[in-house]
Amino acid sequence: MTSILEEEQKNYEPRSKKKSPAKIQNTTTTTTLDTEANVGTEADRDLKDAESLAEFADYIAAETFHALPVELRTLDYHTYSKDTTLQSRYALPLTGSNTPLLLPSLDPSIADSLSAYGITREPAQGIDEFLAPVLTSYLTTLTTAPPPPRSTLRGAQGCELCGRDWIDLSYHHLIPRFVHAKAVRRGWHREEDLQNVAWLCGACHKFVHRFAGHEELARKYYTVELLMAEEGVRRWVDWVGRLRWKGR
Fold first, then answer.
1. Which of 46, 80, 93, 234 is positioned for an S-S bond with 143, CB 3.0–4.6 A?
2. Where are the extended beta strands (E) located within the chain?
3. How far apart are alpha carbons 150 and 188 in whole angstroms?
4. How far is CA 85 from CA 80, 91, 97, in A?
5. How far apart are CA 199 and CA 146, in angstroms?
6. Is 197 helix (H, G, I), strand (E, B) or coil?
7. 127-143 vs 21-67: helix axis angle to the nearest 10?
8. Residue 248 has pLDDT above 50, yes or no
9. Which residue has the higher pLDDT, 121 or 46?
10. What is the reported pTM?
């Protein structure tokens, strides 16, 4: 009899040690919420770290750019290619020894900030060595010749406005020939830019010349991108692009 009672007692636990299903569910839910909260906290922390890094990069870039000489802040390919003094003064690639000459007024706090973030480590790589390839990339971009204007039909993939590629195209002078002399004389454009053209279908070509006069085209709409920025042009393109009156 005693052994039977002892055996049955093994199947039961004191009430104080047992957990009700509700308590078990609450415990599981709490654990899950704690885990999700930790994941959320880590994600928020990563996002804040990324935002802080982006802000820091913007700060360094802005301070460095404003410390450059004016002639470097406004430099372009055409100016650089015609000025041998500039080419000699800013010969590429730049090195750490060039950087102080380009950034004589750079705030010393920039160097301190880069060091604090562990980006630079004196004497192995100081701020001058760090900024040299950055400035080289910047100047290389500015002094690289732009792609030549599309001047042959072979380079066109279809009308550059509506995109239709199964109808005849003709070239449109983005700076109309009637105002070439005036455009150069008044400084609207360089002479080397006068032959820039866009390949357009007949409908789009006629539309462009109805949309704006010669001077307005030369001053405000001298690229396909500038034309497409106008809502009236986009509406036209959307409409004419759906016309299919002529097959291949």
1. 80
2. 169-173, 197-201
3. 21
4. 9, 10, 19
5. 19
6. strand
7. 70
8. no
9. 121
10. 0.52
